[in-house]
């Protein structure tokens, strides 16, 4: 089987025409702000990739989803990273539906029917803080929940239809607070998008700042959970993190695959070198797929999240070995004749920048291996 054939076949079967559209565009065009990739993804039905077929979606399981993200990442790293954030938000809503009252499925059906894209306003790394603690504030009124706060960077900031965010709200029975997920329509008064991402790498992911000022969210767009505020993961958060780690890792492995693909058919590069790099990359992909095969329709447990973190961090090390060697083997003429090689080599470093950072997770993972519950910091 040809390199990337399996991934591209999966992409074609689930989102017909998308790979052809992306392949016909220069990399520089797809990686620039305002690029056509997001529109092509939407038109191919990408918004509903993870929604079960029974509710109008594509019904992709985790294995198919990571193959789709690798295929997209090999064409446009920015699109793969941006759409991973959409899928992360969607996977969290699907997980909520497992314990909800059915209203969540109405929201998911609306996403599919409208081709709606979700940006993630869930908390990320804060200095001396937890990425599980919501950074937006909420005030409950009779008309809905009034939201305030900001998310930066926020992928799909300029193409989103809905901004998802987690907040703590008072329980309806008056006994403390509970975690809730809110869906904020992008056209709501009080939402502003401003420049934030200054790097040329992954500029097409639209990772700018979204500021929410006194935005009223109707009660029917607020999904309450039974999760209390705290540091220990619950099943819904755990499931969301597993999907995030798998899809984001696959996306960056796709970007590295774009470099290695340029070597596969190059007869000037020794066969041993070509096969060695493909082997390293495929071993990392196989590890991702192994965890994906265990990620079924049920909520994930902490053991699977730990596996996904180990796989993600190992993939970072693989990229650190494979990418510089691929650039070296491609040679100076390839490097100088096009910006593509330098761009891809820079873009793959983004995997190490996504939370949770390996250095911060070392102690929690060590405690988990000693028998304690996992914490995400």
Automatic annotation (TrEMBL):
**Protein's name in the database:** Alkylation response protein AidB-like acyl-CoA dehydrogenase
Native source species: Streptomyces eurocidicus (Streptoverticillium eurocidicus)
Q: Which GO terms describe its molecular function?
A: acyl-CoA dehydrogenase activity; flavin adenine dinucleotide binding
- Ranges annotated as spanning the membrane: none
Keyword terms:
FAD, Flavoprotein, Oxidoreductase
Q: Which InterPro entries match?
A: Acyl-CoA_Oxase/DH_mid-dom_sf, AcylCoA_DH/ox_N, AcylCoA_DH/ox_N_sf, AcylCoA_DH/oxidase_NM_dom_sf
**Which N-terminal residues, if any, form the signal peptide?**
none
The family database entries (SUPFAM superfamilies) matched by this protein are listed as: Acyl-CoA dehydrogenase NM domain-like
Annotated Acyl-CoA dehydrogenase/oxidase N-terminal domain ranges read 38-92
What is this organism's lineage? Bacteria, Bacillati, Actinomycetota, Actinomycetes, Kitasatosporales
């Amino acid at each position: 089987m040809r390199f990337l054939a399996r991934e591209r076949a999966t992409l074609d079967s689930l989102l017909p025409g998308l790979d052809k559209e992306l392949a016909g565009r220069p990399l520089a065009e797809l990686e620039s702000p305002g690029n056509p990739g997001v529109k092509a993804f939407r038109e191919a039905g990408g918004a509903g990739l993870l929604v079960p077929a029974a509710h109008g979606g594509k019904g992709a399981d985790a294995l198919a989803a990571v193959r789709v993200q690798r295929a997209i990442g090999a064409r446009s790293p920015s699109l793969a990273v941006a759409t991973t954030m959409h899928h992360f938000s969607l996977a969290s809503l699907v997980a909520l539906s497992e314990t909800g009252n059915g209203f969540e499925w109405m929201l998911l059906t609306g996403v599919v029917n409208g081709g709606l894209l979700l940006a993630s306003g869930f908390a990320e790394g804060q200095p001396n803080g937890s990425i599980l603690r919501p950074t937006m504030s909420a005030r409950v009124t009779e008309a809905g929940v009034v939201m305030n706060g900001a998310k930066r960077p926020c992928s799909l900031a300029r193409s989103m239809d809905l901004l998802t965010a987690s907040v703590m709200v008072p329980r309806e029975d008056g006994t403390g607070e509970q975690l809730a997920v809110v869906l904020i329509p992008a056209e709501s008064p009080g939402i502003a998008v401003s420049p934030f991402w200054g790097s040329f790498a992954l500029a097409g992911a639209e990772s700018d700042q979204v500021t929410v000022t006194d935005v009223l969210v109707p009660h029917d767009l607020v999904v309450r959970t039974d999760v209390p505020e705290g540091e220990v993961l619950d099943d819904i958060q755990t499931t969301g993190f597993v999907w995030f780690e798998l899809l984001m890792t696959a996306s960056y492995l796709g970007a590295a695959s774009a470099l290695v693909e340029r070597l596969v058919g190059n007869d000037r590069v020794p066969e041993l070198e070509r096969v060695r790099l493909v082997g390293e990359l495929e071993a990392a992909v196989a590890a991702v797929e192994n965890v994906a095969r265990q990620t079924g329709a049920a909520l994930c447990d902490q053991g699977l999240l730990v596996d996904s973190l180990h796989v993600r961090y190992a993939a970072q090390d693989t990229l650190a070995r494979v990418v510089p060697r691929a650039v070296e083997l491609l040679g100076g003429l390839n490097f100088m004749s096009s910006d593509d090689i330098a761009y891809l080599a820079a873009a793959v470093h983004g995997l190490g920048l996504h939370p949770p950072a390996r250095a911060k997770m070392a102690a929690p993972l060590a405690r988990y291996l000693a028998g304690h519950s996992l914490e995400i910091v």
